[in-house]
């Protein structure tokens, strides 16, 4: 099998490793079958689609809607690399799954827009599949409604031209969409469990996702939430796109 490519953007080593391990486990792959590139550490370089079965992009503290004068040189480089990659995977309809940050990267293509209108606080919320989501090869095996962990400052305000809406919450209209047949983005985190979410709450305490007095309350709520279905997207993505 050709390996899958995992792209990370988290500068915090422990959280970055935890994210990769969670995606690895969710996909049911070995490390040599899910090759990681940490984009915050250096340029992406040339990506040869023939070398890979598909690409998975993780989340992180970068937001495409951050004011330009607040973005670090690393963030601007990562955004440029991912924009070029996104244009290419959409043009070639190459298998791609972007979680959280990925929806920002894809959401600005083709007349789409991403802003702070539909941000949601950290926690678990019910995600509802659209009719197209229920019929979709990747999302269709999931229940029509399921709980997912999320927490984001920005979201898609206008879908890219030709995008198919796959899932929503009551407080964020675009939680997943597809471009072409094989390019996907989710606003929620399919890899997250309660332990990992609590660790991210601690790791990003200074990033403005919540008020300091909310930290322990958010972690307690995460431990009580029952989130079981989103991780199935990862194994399904591998099932659909693994190739020799």
Automatic annotation (TrEMBL):
<dbReference type="InterPro" id="IPR017926">
    <property type="entry name" value="GATASE"/>
</dbReference>
<feature type="domain" description="Glutamine amidotransferase">
    <location>
        <begin position="52"/>
        <end position="192"/>
    </location>
</feature>
<dbReference type="InterPro" id="IPR044992">
    <property type="entry name" value="ChyE-like"/>
</dbReference>
<protein>
    <submittedName>
        <fullName>Glutamine amidotransferase</fullName>
    </submittedName>
</protein>
<dbReference type="Pfam" id="PF00117">
    <property type="entry name" value="GATase"/>
</dbReference>
<dbReference type="InterPro" id="IPR029062">
    <property type="entry name" value="Class_I_gatase-like"/>
</dbReference>
<keyword id="KW-0315">Glutamine amidotransferase</keyword>
């Amino acid at each position: 099998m050709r390996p899958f490519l995992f792209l990370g953007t988290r500068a915090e080593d422990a959280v970055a490793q935890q994210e990769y391990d969670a995606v690895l486990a969710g996909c049911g792959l070995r490390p040599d079958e899910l090759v990681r590139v940490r984009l915050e550490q250096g340029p992406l370089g040339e990506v040869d689609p023939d070398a890979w079965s598909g690409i998975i992009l993780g989340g992180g503290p970068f937001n495409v809607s951050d004011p330009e004068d607040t973005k670090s040189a690393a963030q601007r480089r990562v955004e440029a690399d991912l924009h070029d990659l996104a244009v290419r995977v959409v043009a070639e309809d190459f298998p791609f799954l972007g979680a959280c940050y990925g929806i920002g990267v894809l959401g600005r293509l083709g007349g789409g827009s991403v802003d702070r209108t539909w941000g949601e606080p950290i926690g678990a919320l019910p995600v509802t599949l659209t009719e197209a989501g229920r019929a979709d090869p990747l999302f269709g095996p999931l229940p029509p409604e399921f709980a997912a962990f999320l927490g984001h400052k920005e979201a898609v305000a206008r879908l890219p031209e030709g995008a198919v809406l796959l899932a929503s919450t009551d407080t964020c209209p675009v939680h997943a969409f597809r471009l072409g047949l094989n390019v996907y983005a989710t606003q929620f985190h399919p890899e997250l469990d309660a332990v990992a979410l609590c660790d991210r709450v601690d790791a990003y305490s200074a990033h403005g996702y919540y008020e300091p007095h909310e930290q322990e309350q958010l972690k307690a709520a995460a431990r009580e939430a029952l989130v079981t279905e989103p991780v199935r997207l990862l194994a399904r993505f591998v099932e659909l796109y693994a190739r020799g």
